[in-house]
Amino acid sequence: MMVNALNNFKKYVPIYLRLALGFTFLSAVADRFGLWGPPGTANVAWGNFQNFLSYTATLNPYLPTDLIPLLGWFVTAGEIGLGLALIFGFRTRWAALLSGFLLFTFILGITLSNSIKGALDYSVFTASAGAFMLALWHTEGIKTNNTANQ
């Protein structure tokens, strides 16, 4: 009975993961455009794009200052595109794989500029691993029936 319940649940896991990753990307973008509130509001990380660019500069101190806005816009476009692709299930394998790599670059930036604790506290490792798992799920065609456990 438990195996059947898990097998029924298993088919919904990739959808849940797609939506969780996709909406997380879009939420971060919404924050940097002030849609969750202005800077200083509870639970708002940036509140505007300038604060986001300052944070981007903090995570990438080795880059010339002139490249920070380009990087900020590139990451923002990537998060919007990947977020929407994941939510709508468009080219899921590629969207998930690119999401995993994008999130891994965030891990590197946070870890090298601050500490590994920040990447752990913000669950970036978990999100990156989940994105890679989603890519594998769609690559390997993980079975969702009883034969997968036999």
Structure, explained:
With 150 residues, this protein is mainly alpha-helical. The protein has one domain. The chain is 71% helix and 0% strand. The chain contains 7 helices and no strands. Helix 4 (68-88) runs antiparallel to helix 5 and helix 5 packs antiparallel against helix 7 (124-140). The chain is elongated.
Number of strands: 0
Low-confidence stretches: 143-150
Class by SSE composition: mainly alpha
Give the rounded overall mean pLDDT.
Answer: 91
Give Rg in angstroms: 18 Å
Overall shape: it is elongated
Helix percent reads over 70%
Number of helices: 7
Distance between the termini: 15 Å
Counted up, domains total 1
Query: Mind summarizing the main beta sheet?
Result: none
Proportion of residues in extended strands:
under 5%
SSE arrangement, N to C: HHHHHHH
